[in-house]
Amino acid sequence: NHLTAGALQTLDDKLYQEYICRHITDDGSRDDCHLILAKACIRRIAHRCLDKYARLQSSKEVVEDALQFYTLPMELQEQLASKYGTPPPTTWYESLDQLKSLSTTEDSCDQGKLWRLILDHPMTSYVPVTCGHVVPDQYPTQQTDAEVGLREIAPTGDELELRAGWFRGPRQAVVFELTCKGCNAVSKWYRSGHPQILLNPNKWGRLCGDQEDLRLTLAEYLNTPVRLAVPLDWDHVWSEYSSGSSTWQVQDDSARNFCCRLDEGIGSWTRVWAIHSNPEWCKDVTRDYLTIQQNGGRVDNNIDDKRMKRYEKITKDARMDKSGDLTQAKTVNG
């Protein structure tokens, strides 16, 4: 699952051995293997996203049940009432209805406005994994799992759609037990694509992958076109949306200006792909995330040309580094 340089070399050697067993070798046979591997890597990433789309096809009834499942904490109700000038909503379902009302003029709902409100709403916000203190989702990690009070435990079987995912590195489908270093309180958390888990308002961790799972689910529920933006060799994901035009938009500042994260000093990404189950919406959008808006890209215009050229060089160097050491994930997909 983690395409490091060593893993790629192993695949290459195995494929080459199989290749020469089945073909009369020539000078180009190794290059043929490389081409096959490159195509396989592309398809692997794309089909992982397509599998996500398929798994997140929750029925309207399941989504509505999840939206109504929890009573929102009183503090959150008051926060939403203050932010939107509405009565305090008791459930996410009531809060979504309020957003629909705010997006409606003359009996017509502005889908683009509604989606922008949802993207900026606590319902879909990033929530760090916490057990009284925040467990940093870092990779490479600065502290071991034990040092931050984290350990993997076996699932009980009662989990809803337990899945594998990235948390402080690649993980199998496991449950995490968190022990607070301050008060020794013990809690549990796991990755899931089920809307009832994703919408838990009681300090349940919702990392970037979980955010996008929830957004894809809500986009399907509301008939809003959304596609995933996947940076290669970096642990992150975000979404782009279309509000009826042929263009794709990015609401989140940090996603729109993802190139600026190259200044964090934790490694580089190599490319950015936009992936959707509709092939016509799939595209290599690397150039868009290395170009400012006035030149046709995604990046805010206040990022100067000198910085953009530096970011372009960083990503190019990472693509050319066959060890993967220059990337954040230490992988070689790009």
Question: Summed up, what is this model?
Answer:
The protein has 334 residues and is an alpha+beta fold.
Describe this structure in words.
The chain is an alpha+beta fold and 334 residues long. Helices cover 37% and strands 11% of the residues. The protein is built from ten helices and eleven strands. It has helices at residues 5-22, 29-55, 60-69, 74-84, 92-102, 111-119, 195-198, 208-222, 253-256, 305-320; strands spanning 104-105, 108-109, 150-153, 165-166, 170-171, 175-179, 186-190, 226-231, 238-241, 272-275, 283-284. The strands form four sheets. Strands 9-8-10-11 form a four-stranded antiparallel β-sheet, with helices on one face. Helix 1 packs across helix 2 (29-55). The protein is globular. The two termini are 15 Å apart. The model has no long low-confidence stretch (mean pLDDT 88).
